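Work package 3, deliverable 3.1, input record:
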Amino acid sequence: MEQIIVNGVVLSATYALVALGITLIFSIMNLLNFAHGQILMIGGFMVYYVYGVFGLPYAVALPVAAVVTGLIGFGFEVLLFRRVVRVATREENSMLLAVGTALLLENLALFGFGEKQRGVPSIVGGVYRVGAAFLPAGRLLVVLIALALIVALLLFVQYTRPGRAMRALAQDREVTYLMGVDVERISALGFALGAGLAGIAGGLLVTLSGVNAGIGTALSTKAFIMIMIGGAGVVAGAILGAVVLGFAEAVGYALIPGSTTYLLIFVGLILFLVLRPQGIMGKPQR
Amino acid sequence: MYFECRDLCVHYDKVQALDRVSLAAQQGEVVALLGANGAGKSTTLRAITGLTRASRGEIWFEDTRIDRLPPAAIVARGIAMVPEGRHIYPFMSVRDNLLMGAYLRRDTAGIRRDLDRVFARFPRVRERLNQQAGTLSGGEQEMVVVGRALMARPRLLLLDEPSLGLAPMVVRDIARLIGDVNREDNVTIILVEQNARMALKVSGRAYVLETGRIGLAGGSAELAGDDHIRRLYLGG
């Protein structure tokens, strides 16, 4: 029982980073980033190479993962999405583009990193006992890093000038132009930030479960599940969705044979969405 | 001329929304822009702020041509707009709404002073400072969006239908507010209104847009007495 709670907390904290990243991009650009899982995967590989292969400290590898994936997000926004979001009259256009970028990243990763499953040695040694449960020190560190970043992000969005501009942009794009906000710059910054968070989450997850070039789609799907549960575009909803999914997985893996867990999660999700299509904290469609 | 649009044309795809619209404002004036739904009033304001590009014509403000500038640069030059339908940020606190208006300013002390001026003008806004703006009444929301625009310290203020959907008593408050802002803050105002009676009362001059063209222009007092205007916009 305690072990389930410990595992649930570890998963929830990392997933919250994933959900917050995709929520940031969704609310600012009105775009469901289908490449989110692939960006996570890239972040995982960055940590694998910098920390696992080249032997540099994890404290170097994780920022590298954040910067590389942040730059990928920035480049995607400036070179691809900016133009498509402006000229497209239908949301499907930018969604298809996002699917395209997902395939692009996945194939580049297959080409560059190969198809092998990769793991990294644990970041720190030692195991803590929490009641009857075991908590390896590496996992505790993952939780602490994730929580610190979540708090930092929330403070940034709530109290800084660019953070306020991002919230403004999410609520009313046109009026935000009238406030004198450089909307293009803030959009690119938001996309970079969302992608960077995904990269960090990937860099944390690789220490838990490893990485391979094909995990992107599964991770994107998890991200979608989280924001569907919590309510798309709502920060508190994203965190809540992450906690629900994290604990559902932890419970499932402890009590139910392997692959049945996600089958049950999907069935539960479908039933839930029939009852509450906007998610727990989502606003009903206007 | 302090502010001027010369021969402004705007096209939405193939449809021409504005056809050689020319209008001007002297420093310190309140100018009304009247007209029926779809006459091009909002389009004119959108062209001034750069939200919509003019396909022909020029816009000049304080001896600078501004019609090729992006919206942020136009705001930075001292033009603020209160868009139609209020458009507060509903999920932001009232305080953050007001601070968004001061987005381009870096003078923290000046921003605080101007916040106090907004509170002095709208005591009700101060009471609801930490409330989500979406929970305010229509009249209170109008105060917040006007306060937000004033936080930019504009020299030219564009108001798009501020009386829309408000009770007659609140419309009177808004009319008084327009006069106050104009005199006390020395802000030049272009007021777009369907409520021609109110607009002609608070403005010195007025233009009437008819399907994308300036149909009539003149002193507001004369226009209020004009038979054509009375019949079309003042209800007899």
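The longest helix of chain A spans residues 58-87.
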